[in-house]
Amino acid sequence: MPTTQETPTASPIGRKTPRIDGPLKVSGTAQYASDFHFPGMLYAVPVEATIANGRVEKLDTAAAEKMPGVRAIFHRANIGKIFRSALGNGMEGICIERRPPFDDDVVRYYGQYIALAVADTFEAAKGAADAVRVTYDKNKPNVENDLKADDDPAVIETTYGPEHRLESERGDADAAFASAPVKLDQTYVTPAETHNPIELQGATAIWDGSMLTLYEESQAIFNMRGVLAQMFGLPKENVRVITKFVGSGFGSKLWPWTHCPLAAAAARQLGKPVKLVLSRKMMFQTAGHRARTQQRVRLGATPEGKLVSLQHDYVYHRSMLDDYHENCGEATAFQYSVPNLRVKFGRAKRNIGSPSDMRGPGAVPGLYATESAMNELADQLKIDPVRLRVLNEPKIDESLGIPFSSRHYLECLELGAEKFGWSKRKPEVGSMKGDGLTLGWGMAGAAWVAARFAAEASVELRNDGTTRVACGTQDIGTGTYTILAQLASEKTGVPLDKVEVALGDTSLPEGPVSGGSMATASVVPAVFAAADNAITSLLTVATTTPGTPFEKRQPTDLAFEAGRVFVKADGPAGGTPFADLLKRANLRLVTGSGKSEMTFGEKKPKFSTHSFGCHFVEVTWQPEIARLRVNRVVTVIDAGRIINPLAGRNQIEGAVVMGIGMALLEHTTYDPQNGAPINSNLADYIVAVNADVPKLEVHFLDYPDKVLNQLGARGIGEIGLAGIAAAITAAVHHATGVRVRELPVKIEDLLTSSVLS
Ligand code: MOS
Question: In a 3-state reduction of DSSP, which class is residue 679?
């Protein structure tokens, strides 16, 4: 069994590599988007609607306009033209809230921008925004929690294109459920959750004639360039987006929000750079959140534990404006073998800001529901929950009828159970004790899609022995700078400290979105091809430059390894460093470009490509004081080859921490009176912090998945959050006897616990 790597090797691939950008970050010299300052720069602060449903009747800007330092108060009448954008092909033109800001007087959610104050200082702009008087014609907002599907057609348009509401179907799920000897029919609810990256969103816009430059912390700079070009009626070459560092995003920074065109429009009207940074409160209103979901899961099984029917019917909320699709069924149709299955969804409109992708979108709430149902079925059947999963392991992806590229789910379960000590589990509720506390043990499985986005990259070999790799992707804190350096070092033999990495700028070769856990898998073939092409160029230089040892050779006689060129027949022992050859030829550098195609969303894939994993959780329960804590987590992940086990482990640990928050703490609550997210700050919106997090144990299986790329790397950003909430709620049930089917688990849910110590 090839378990966790860390074998010492000369190759930087698979080696624990500290972040190459770490020193810049800890010394405060890394420039995040809002750290860029320009002469004459002005500050913009939006005016937020304080109703969630109605119309702006009157905007009184007179007092605000007269305040010192104020340059303008923009609104519908004076912001200038902002166009809509449209979805293109591939990964182009993606935008969740399409309505240009200030497009009409209708207010559809609390916090919608209705005016914009621009001033010489942030303080003056904030004062002016607060001084704008707004009169509304207001109606009661609909922020109802109970979700019933709206009357939508069978095929709907979503942010990413058309979707069938009947997502997947095989056999006859209804009939098989009706005749199943064992049945489970439960509904699971996940609340709205809000992304809380430490770095706030914001944009700084600068115009130079018809050229627009935007500094923005984007997870997808090329998409942002395309959307902004459409909104200002420009060719996309006229827009440049720069994102050097991102203080995390969790999906909230994937697609442009309405503050971006507002900053650009204000800068256009005033002829000055304009900076607009959101407040934490605005982040809860106008920059996305994970949609609330209500998911009914019906399972039919034999008494031996073989699934005969699976139905997953879910509804999620969305705003009045968007078509964002929360794909809770993402993993349902392939995760287990079942002959009869139906996955179907509906949507419910509410007076809230648009939901959006949040770490593991769809699959994370989806797997909470389906994995919880599996755990409940196991209890009903009195079968060990690991065994129930083993009994229903599929041989192929039964939804598509194609093989998995690489699936080692059973090995994840086996290793996880062994590391956790699962065989010592006593199934009776409240039966396990440790240190005077009641223990609860639970587990759940995980899956997340693996694929590539299109990617282009360039690699230079330079005459000082350094290399530069460039790719217009982003590092959202996950370690992309370091991964690109490792890839370039692997191919060129240049040590990591002599590799320069350029990313986060649309003037670079077009790189992939930092999303869907796909950036790493996507850049591997592009960087490798670019390096190969740079080396090809070098070999031609070697054979055509007088005075080199290779002067009379053909490029095909030569090879390149570990930074040296040598004659194949002689072997790599001698060889000439590439820097020497370049100097001899009077070249500063040779360069190569490489690209790879998108596999994500392929119409007829040959393989079903996913990552897999599982979590085993121990909670402690003190009924006397109703204290519940997550005490121990063992996670096993099958995500192909792990390029950087240090960064990889960070990703899984971070996701498990977020999963503890998802299970026990996080929820965004909307005020039924005015529709406002009530807990829109980090004091009232509770996320898991150090004190909530126990020792986390992470194991990677290390099976390269060569369907994805030469190294066999899939992705690790999201899978750690899949399934963890179901494992925690199962452990909670095991400790307390209380089934919580609406997240997060609240102390008051547990006060009915029958388990007294
Ligand atoms: Mo992730 S939700 O694709 O940033």
Answer: coil
Q: Exposure of 549 by Cβ count < 10 A (0-12 exposed, 13-18 middle, 19+ buried)?
A: middle
| CA–CA distance, 144 with 456 (Å, rounded to integer) | 45
Contact between 628 and 660 (Cβ < 8 Å): no
Amino acid at 476: I
The CA distances from residue 592 to 130, 446, 463, 517, 580, in Å, are 53, 39, 15, 26, 19
Residue among 269, 323, 274, 261 at smallest CA distance from 84: 261
Is 718 designated active site? yes
**What is the rounded CA–CA span in Å between residue 284 and residue 677?**
7
Q: Is the pTM of this model over 0.85?
A: yes
The pLDDT tens digits of the residues spanning 638-688 come to 999 999 999 999 999 999 999 999 999 999 999 999 999 999 999 999 999
CB of 7 within 8 A of CB of 645?
no
Ligand 1 atom nearest to 360, measured from its CA: 2
Q: Enter the tokens of residue 393.
A: 């392991």
Residue 166: φ, ψ to 5°:
-85, 95
Residue 539's H or E segment, with its range, is helix 519-544
User: Which pLDDT tens digit goes with each residue over 393-427?
Assistant: 999 999 999 999 999 999 999 999 999 999 999 99
CB 710, CB 87: distance < 8 Å: no
Site to substitute for ligand 1 among 193, 478, 718, 719, most atoms within 8 A of C-beta: 718
